[in-house]
Amino acid sequence: MNEPLVLLPGMMCDARIFAPQIFALSTDMAVMAAPITHGERIEEIASHILSLAPSKFALAGLSMGGIVALEILRRAPERVTRLALMDTSPMAESPAEAAAREVQIVGARSGRMLEVIRDDMLPNVLRPGPERGDQQALMLDMAADLGPEVFVRQTRALQRRRDHQMTLRKIRQPALILCGADDTLTPPKRHEFMAQLIEFAQLRVIDGAGHLPVLDQPAAVTAALRDWMKQPLVLR
User: Fold this and answer.
1) Which among 157, 182, 209 is the end of a domain?
2) Which residue range forms the structural domain that includes residue 81?
């Protein structure tokens, strides 16, 4: 467990989304959260992160961060020692999804970005419960700090993303596939499918969590990441 850990947040999120994990894991290892805000294509975002990252590193991506993580692995598999994909998808954007994002872009450009995120996006991301209000406030704070230009760039990147199912089949590093049991945006069945494509992958479904288990069940996610970081690098 000597290699540094690079965390990639979801869309319109920054390092704050991983605050519990960074706090807990940084006692044992070097941890950094890299921005996924530079570029209008997933490939450009991945290139920027590779320019910032250590020569070799463990990589964990949440939601859009998982999509970027797969592109990083495709481009530089020799630099990624292990991979964790959390509440994400290897699929390309469907035409219907891409069209819906155009409406969101128009809203963001007209000064209504926070409304778009609050009304169109967060209902699919946040799980009902007593913490929902605080979680929404955090999500909106992060989005406000990043701003509408980042929103548009990230949206365009998601619209143009490639299918990474073949990338999954080529993974030989220790792999963790993790999701919330109540994730309706990228449901557990999709993660089961992802795990089946990766040799020796570990699948962890977190009870009491939706699309953001890092917030819903932070201790369980931290424990899963710690176990994954302890896996031997040579699996066969």
Assistant:
1) 157
2) 5-93+161-230
